[in-house]
Design brief:
Elements: E1 3-4, E2 10-13, H1 16-24, E3 27-32, H2 41-52, E4 57-62, H3 67-73, H4 78-103, E5 110-114, H5 122-137, H6 139-153, H7 165-178, H8 180-189, E6 194-198, H9 205-209, E7 221-227, H10 229-236, H11 251-256
Parallel strand pairs: 3-4, 3-6, 4-5, 6-7
Antiparallel strand pairs: 1-2, 2-7
């Protein structure tokens, strides 16, 4: 279900329903992790320009919870972990704000917020409790979280090392803070529907969007891989994407149709 969005990004909605939600163009959530080199200010600029042409509302949400604990779990002293986390969180916020500023888009359409800002949101609190509950009671959900943890922290482990129980728990806490937005962003942010956009398919995607039971994304929550690689490939090989779907219109064009 590839959508060639424009000259900047290729979009791959995970399911047919995800594609329909994408086409509605109500809202997109772009999650940004501290220390992830993918999210340069230039990449944020491109994402902001792209998102505002296709969605009525755009939210950049950056992770700022349990970051210090993650550093501590992988070898930093407590003091060094706190300083490193503070530095990384400030840096990612600066990059997002700079990227949005340089995009030249209407700031009324884009919000930039930290994950911690939602801790007082009652819907977020409920969804967070549900995530923690399924981590304890659902083997398939827990396995998906374990795979996701290894996917993101495997490079931090020495060759031949396995992740410890303490490290895994910190990863679970970090992910549990983010997962409510992959389950039901519309209810948290009071939008009709939402697409969670990330540049790779996460191991939890199948668990939340494809299985028949357990914790699942709501019917108006979508997931899509949004990546620049296809555009770069197309520049070097113009015949690469002859069979992809037509270029989308803007939000206003689709709604007028």
């Amino acid at each position: 279900m590839t959508i060639t969005a424009d000259a900047s990004f290729e979009v791959l909605p995970f399911t047919r329903t995800c594609r329909h939600i994408w086409e509605d163009g109500d809202h997109v959530l772009i999650g940004v992790s501290p220390g992830n080199s993918y999210f340069s200010s230039e990449r944020i600029t491109s994402l902001a320009r792209w998102a505002t042409t296709r969605f009525a509302q755009v939210d950049f949400v950056y992770a700022d919870l349990h970051v210090d604990r993650m550093f501590a779990a992988f070898g930093y002293t407590r003091e060094h972990a706190e300083k490193r986390a503070t530095k990384e969180i400030k840096a990612v916020r600066r990059r997002i704000l700079k990227g949005v500023e340089e995009s030249g888009t209407s700031h009324a359409e884009i919000r930039v917020r930290a994950l911690s800002e939602f801790q007082a949101n009652p819907v977020y609190q409920l969804l967070h409790r549900r995530v923690l509950h399924f981590l304890e009671t659902d083997d398939e959900f827990r396995k998906g979280c374990e795979e996701m943890a290894l996917h993101f922290v495997g490079s931090k482990l020495q060759e031949g090392e396995s992740i410890t129980d303490a490290q895994l728990q910190v990863c679970f806490d970090y992910m549990a803070a983010e997962l409510p937005f992959f389950v039901d962003t519309p209810s948290i942010l009071d939008v009709p529907s939402s697409v969670a956009a990330y540049h790779v398919k996460m191991p939890m995607t199948d668990v939340l969007f494809a299985r028949g039971g357990g914790l699942r994304a709501t019917r108006n929550q979508a997931y899509a891989v949004v990546r620049p690689e296809a555009a770069e490939m197309a520049q070097s090989n113009p015949n690469t994407h002859k069979n992809t779907a037509p270029v989308e219109g803007t939000v206003d064009e689709r709604r007028a149709a």
